[in-house]
Amino acid sequence: MATIILIAVMLMLSSFIFRCSFEYFICLRIATCGVLAVHSFLASKANRFILAYVSALMLLVFNPVAPIHLDRSGYEFLAASWNTVLLAL
What we know:
Blueprint: H1 2-14, H2 22-45, H3 49-61, H4 72-88
Helix pairs in contact: 1-2, 1-4, 2-3
């Protein structure tokens, strides 16, 4: 289950390479936030605390309620670096 959630997050974050409208990225942030919350919970239940902390940190960065305002290249860099970190774990 956790592997499927992790793959879903990576695919959603990889969509930053496409030129989409602003509304799409708001929906992407909401979906990513929900998936990361579930993944962080499941990782903590499985005693994989490093993965749980990484997911919680990603959750804070892609939070739709109190967003961090970056330009497009900043989010592309974050998405690529988070995908690399998740692949390494």
